[in-house]
Amino acid sequence: MKIDWTPLQDLLKTPRRIVLTTHVRPDADAIGSEVAMAGLLDQLGMDVRIINASPVPTRLKFLDPDNRCLQIGSQISEEHAREADVHLILDTSAWGQLAEMGRVVRSTRAAKVVVDHHVSSENLGAIDLKDKSKVFNTARVEALELANLVETAKATIVSAEARKESRGAHAHRDFPNRDDANWIKHTLFYSEGNRLEYKPVAMKPLTVETFQPKARTF
Ligand SMILES: [Mn+2]
Predict the structure, then answer these.
(1) Ligand 1 mean position to 54 CA, how many Å?
(2) What is the 161 CA–ligand 1 centroid distance (Å)?
(3) How many whole angstroms from 27 Cα to the centroid of ligand 1?
(4) Residues in CB range of 30: below 8 A, 6 or more apart
(5) 55 C-alpha to center of ligand 1: Å?
(6) Would you say the pTM of this structure is higher than 0.90?
(7) pLDDT tens-digit profile of 47-89?
(8) How far is the CA of 147 from the centre of ligand 1 (A)?
């Protein structure tokens, strides 16, 4: 599905104040697309803020490491949320899903743009840039997987080279024998600086006390 991005490109020809927003109870594609779009717009020299009706769910906070997503009402006022040249709405095209941000979007004099992949018959009065096709970006996923493979390979190479013995599946040609005196330990690899640490192997069996049956009270 081909999207004509010209209307958005035209809006971004000059520096603008851009407010990004998404649907209530945001999920990973909502937060992820906001943070990614904010990064792109930063690079274009835009003044970018992300303002949502809902907070970022705890399990998705890793997607917003710089805490860029602000919640209207608690972290930023409705008036400040309205101060924008462009309101860019991501991952929704329905008024109901905008909740408190809907009031801002309805009353704004700024340009409105929707970038979405959902089917909706509602009109937000915005430039619609929608792709409802089922094709997703496998090239991107494959690139991420390759990066993970490289990282795992690096951890394996660095850790194995440092282990001056052979043990089980680990075979070090310069050290063909097992060395229990020095190497009964786990290797921990840290990617920053390819640092290694070691952790003792628990040799004593662990026991867990049995829970005694009792009434369930809350
Ligand atoms: Mn979503």
Answers:
(1) 13
(2) 45
(3) 5
(4) 22, 23, 90, 91, 92
(5) 14
(6) no
(7) 999 999 999 999 999 999 999 999 999 999 999 999 999 999 9
(8) 26
User: What b/e string do you get for 122-136 counting C-beta neighbours within 10 Å, with b at 16 or more?
Assistant: eebebbbbeeeeeee
Q: What is the CATH number of domain 6-137?
A: 3.90.1640.10
| C-alpha 6 – ligand 1 centre gap (Å) | 24
Positions of CATH 3.90.1640.10 in the chain: 6-137
158-187: per-residue pLDDT in tens?
999 999 999 999 999 999 999 999 999 999
CA of 95 to the centre of ligand 1 (A): 14
Length of the chain: 218
Cβ–Cβ under 8 Å, residues 134 and 147: no
Residues 6 or more apart in contact with residue 138 via CB below 8 angstroms: none
